[in-house]
Amino acid sequence: MAQEDLRENEKIISLEVDGILLKGTFHDPGVSYPPVVIGCHGLFADRQSPKQTALARAVCKEGIAFLRLDHRGCGDSQGDFKRVTTLANRLRDLLGAMDFVKSQMGLRGKMGLFGSSMGGAVCLKAAMKKPVDCLIANAAPIDFTSVIDVLRKSGQHNLLSQAFYEENPVLVKDQDLPISRILVFHGHQDETVPVSHALALHAMCQEPKKLRLFKNGDHRMSSSQDQGIFIRESVKWYKEFLL
Prior knowledge:
Layout: E1 10-17, E2 20-27, E3 36-40, H1 50-60, E4 65-69, H2 81-84, H3 87-103, E5 111-116, H4 118-129, E6 134-138, H5 145-154, H6 162-166, E7 182-187, H7 196-204, E8 209-214, H8 224-242
Parallel strand pairs: 3-4, 3-5, 5-6, 6-7, 7-8
Antiparallel strand pairs: 1-2, 2-4
Helix pairs in contact: 1-8, 3-4
């Protein structure tokens, strides 16, 4: 297992989905039966994402638990990345983690989701299957057309199997989504997922909802100023709907 800088209130957890052992880091706020947020990373990332780690630690201080999950084939989880990476499989990972948190960890209270990039798309799909109390999506695509184009131009398309490309790239299109209490972050200069995705997603979701755009923001949210705003507004959002 890769080395991880664990704090006193953080622990490694294991869960099984489809016979595959997944690893995660659980941030325990030290209160009885806390609400919990489950975080999903992007396509080539893992649970050690600095933004997600900072967010997890920030909400934990407010009495909200957070589970940072490594999807199959990523980080410390089992699975061959190229063979197992599809939107459907990552959705199964998240749904399995949601069930695990409630059944095995006994956290049956309020639940929120966080997803960045492809992780945001996974969270949207999950929220359409199982209602959640709130959701934050950062740089999330509503279809994979632009993502696939970037992969091909960068030469990274060979890192993924044909199954990834055979999935319907359209997640949602011109419809009202049964999703509310959603906060959407996106950068105007996102080179992977155009900002039009965030505008369309926000328009299709139900109130209460909020859209936060960063004028010079890129796909990775490289600006430390943007990152600070992201953490503050995300913590406020989770506190409003989970506490």
